[in-house]
Structures are given as structure tokens and as C-alpha cells.
Amino acid sequence: RRERQRFVDKNGRCNVQHGNLGGESSRYLSDFFTTLVDLKWRWNLLIFLLTYTVAWLVMASMWWGIAYLRGDLHQAHGDTYSPCVANVYNFPSAFLFFVETEATIGYGHRYITERCPEGIVLFLFQSLLGSVVDAFLIGCMFIKMSQPKKRAETLMFSHAAVISQRDAKLCLMFRVGNLRNSHMVSAQIRCKLIKSRQTPEGEFLPLDQCELDVGFGTGADQLFLVSPLTICHEINSESPFFCLSQRSLRSEQFEIVVILEGIVETTGMTCQARTSYTEDEVLWGHRFLPVMSLEDGFFRVDYSQFHATFEVPTPPYSVKE
């Protein structure tokens, strides 16, 4: 096999990196929430911990500062003296008071007195700021945990694509499957052929994208994915593979990107799974082994044969020939 750079990996990851953004990198900050959701988990957890730690220390320092400026740290908190916050004598006690207030624990030992207007204002500011921080960070973590990316891992694609005859027509075929019992609602599949070409004007297109028809006109691209399905692209005069033969397949360089989209039945969120096939992963004159069998009252899918193929008599010529 010839090892070369793929545009899309088998697991669906796109091998594209954006560089030299210049001033355009500020667009990431303008949509900071999406940027935070797109970060990896380790950075999300780090930002989550740092934000709460810094906010807690800053707010605790403000409560300690009020007590320090009022002289509450050096006064006996008795019946004759009314501090801003009762039983706050140092920074640890101010930090504990802030945590009790923010978490609405309320042990009852530390509390704000009515003779401290600056403490009341700071308490209102703390409540508003805490609500904003909680909504932002917890909402970000919830959206990140509920993303349907993991659902795409239970959508399978065959390791190879095959070319053989079906209904007396030469077809390019590959197989898709759903490992979960929950369905993909409104599942739709699309295929893109990525191949370099040169236009008649001399312009070189290194990653030209061309649509492969997998049943758009007949509705065959709308899948009822309750069992493994074989997706078929008919090679005809409208197909980019019209001149492809068994011999020319060995010298071609192309990549077929497959995109499967649908709505996760349990969450209602849109899920997308991707894979790709290079010319080395297209088997001429092969067909997929059957995986369905009828048992006592139900159909059984044997996923051990999901990727298996066998040879069938296929003309080595292109459709054009």
C-alpha cells in the first residue's frame, strides 16, 4: 500500500490546521463560549478550576478587606460591638464565610449585620457574579458532556469499499452500521470525491471536491439504519469514475469522504460521523458478505462479518470501455 496524507482519517478527524490567522484570531474571543466548548477536556477542567479558584479568592479578599478597613479583625465581636460580618477575624474565616454564602450552606455562625451597607452591596454583587459564573461554566460543561460526538463512535463504516456489478450495473459500494438499539432519526448519507485536477485554463486544484450520487434523486440516501446497509454509487456517464478500470485504479490518487448525519433519538441532537476511502482501500471485483440471519422471531446481525468481502466475477474494464 502507498502511504500518503489523508484529507479525512478513518475515524473522521479532518487533517486540516489553520495557520497565520493574524488579526482574524480575535474572532475566537468574540465567540468565547463556542471556543471554550471546542477546547479539549483537560483545558476545560483547568479553566473551570482556575475560574472558581480565582473568583473565590478575590471575593474572599474583598470581604476580608471590608473587615480590615472597619477594624473588625481587632475588635471583640460581642454585644457592645456590631461588626460587618459576625465571627470574621482573619482571611480563612472570611473565605469560609464567602463559601458558605456562595454555596447557600448557611451554618449560622457567620452572618452579615444590618449596620454594614458596604457588605450588603458586596453581597448583592457576589450573588449576581456567582450566578453569571455558574451559568457560564456549568452550561459550558453540560453542553460539552451532551455533545453527540461519542454517539458517532457507535456508527460503523466498512474498512474498504468495493466495486462490482449489481443489477447488471458497475457500482461502488461500502457498508454502514449502527451498533446501538436506539435509532438515528432522519439519517442521511453523502459522499465527496476529493481529487486534484487541472482546469482547461491551467489552474491547479489540489483538493477539488466532487459529489458522488448515492441515491439523491431516488431518495436512497435517506437511510432507515436499523441494520447494516450497503450504500451504492452507480458508475455511469455522470459519475466521476466513468473512465475508471481495474488497471487504472492502481495508478489513480483520490479519496472518497463519507458523511453520515442524523438526529440522535434519545437526545434530539444532530450527530455526524465521517470516514474516508483512498484508492488503496477500494477493492475491484469484491462484494460484502451477508451479515443478516433469521433467528427464532427476530433478525440477528453478525458484526464479525461486517468488514469481510469475497471475490466475484467482475469485468476489469471501465464503464466507458
SSE blueprint:
Layout: H1 26-30, H2 32-38, H3 41-70, H4 91-102, H5 117-145, E1 155-157, E2 161-166, E3 169-178, E4 184-198, E5 204-212, E6 222-223, E7 229-234, H6 246-249, E8 255-264, E9 270-278, E10 282-284, E11 286-288, E12 292-294, E13 299-301, E14 309-311
Parallel strand pairs: 2-10
Antiparallel strand pairs: 1-3, 2-3, 3-7, 4-5, 4-6, 4-8, 8-9, 11-14, 12-13
Helix pairs in contact: 2-5, 3-4, 3-5
What is the CATH homologous superfamily assignment of the largest domain? Answer: G protein-activated inward rectifier potassium channel 1
In terms of quaternary structure, what is this? single chain
Number of domains: 2
Counted beta strands: 14
For the CA atoms, what is the radius of gyration? 31 Å
Strand content: 25-35%
- How far apart the termini lie comes to 27 Å
Quick gist of this model?
It holds the Pfam family IRK. The protein has helices at 26-30, 32-38, 41-70, 91-102, 117-145, 246-249; strands at residues 155-157, 161-166, 169-178, 184-198, 204-212, 222-223, 229-234, 255-264, 270-278, 282-284, 286-288, 292-294, 299-301, 309-311. It is of the alpha+beta class and 321 residues long.
Write a structural description:
The protein is α+β, with helices and mostly antiparallel strands and 321 residues long. It has two domains: 24-146, Helix Hairpins, CATH 1.10.287.70; 150-311, Immunoglobulin-like, CATH 2.60.40. 27% of the residues lie in helices and 26% in strands. It contains six helices and 14 strands. It has helices at 26-30, 32-38, 41-70, 91-102, 117-145, 246-249; strands at residues 155-157, 161-166, 169-178, 184-198, 204-212, 222-223, 229-234, 255-264, 270-278, 282-284, 286-288, 292-294, 299-301, 309-311. The strands form four sheets. Strands 1, 2, 3, 7 and 10 form a five-stranded mixed beta sheet that branches. A hairpin with a 2-residue loop joins strand 2 and strand 3. Helix 3 (41-70) crosses helix 4. The two termini are 27 Å apart.
